[in-house]
C-alpha cells in the first residue's frame, strides 16, 4: 500500500510534462466568474465552501474528471502526510477555485505553490529516491548515494575500493566505514562538490560518475505573482482557530494577465 502511494506521487512529480499557453482565453475569463455546485468532496470538507468556478486553473470544466487527474490525486495523497499546512488550499485553489465577488475566481499566488513545494520537497525527493531503488542522489554532492553505478561519465569501469590496482590509494572501507565503499560502486567519501566519483581502471587516476539527481518537479512558475495588473489568492493557517484563511493579493479588479496556465 505504501509503495502504491509513493508510486502515485512519483508518477506526477517526475513524469508529467507541461507546456505553457500563451494567454488566458477570453471564454475562460467569463467561466471563472460563473458559479457551479462544488462536487469535489475533498475541497468541500477541507475548504468549507460549496460552490466553485465553472472552470478551474487547469482549464477543466468536468469535476468528475478532475478527481481522476494525476496531479490532483498526487496532491491529495501528499496532503495526508502533513508536510505543509497549505497543501489543501493550494490543491483546491487550483482545481476548485472559489468565486470571489465581485472579481470571480482568482488564480493561486505563486507563493502558495512555493510554500507547498518548499515544505514538501524533502518528502517527495525521498519518495523519488525510494522508487528509484536508491539509483539517484538527494543532493548535488551525493554523499547519500548508495546505488550501483560503477563507471565514470566517460564509461570507464571503476576500480574496486578494496584493491590497489591499477591505482594505489588510502580510501577504503576501513578508513571510511560509513561511506558505503562496497565493490567498485561510485561514492563520495570526501565530499567532492560535483558528486560521487571512483578510482578508474584506466590511466586516469579518478573521475566523477554519472549519478542522476532525484528530481522533483513543482511547476510554481506557472502561477502569477500579485501585482497592480494581477490579483491572486493566498492562504495562511490560523493555528489558534485551526483553520485556513483566504487572502486576496495584488489587484483583483484588474484584468487577468496572460500568465502561464499549465496544459498537460
From TrEMBL:
Name of this protein: Blue pigment protein
Ligase among keywords: no
SUPFAM superfamilies: Frizzled cysteine-rich domain, Kringle-like
Pfam family, one: Fz
Domain FZ residue range list: 37-189
GO CC annotations on file: extracellular space; membrane
Stored InterPro entries: Frizzled_dom (IPR020067), Frizzled_dom_sf (IPR036790), Kringle (IPR000001), Kringle-like (IPR013806), Kringle_CS (IPR018056), Kringle_sf (IPR038178), Serine_protease_kringle (IPR050759)
Leader sequence segment: 1-18
Molecular-function annotations in GO: ATP binding; endopeptidase activity; signaling receptor binding
Mode of membrane association: Single-pass type I membrane protein
Main location as per UniProt: membrane
CDD domains per UniProt: CRD_FZ, KR
Disulphide bridges, residue numbers: 186-209
Domain Kringle: 141-214
UniProt-annotated location(s): Membrane
Assigned keywords, A-Z: ATP-binding, Disulfide bond, Kringle, Nucleotide-binding, Phosphoprotein, Signal
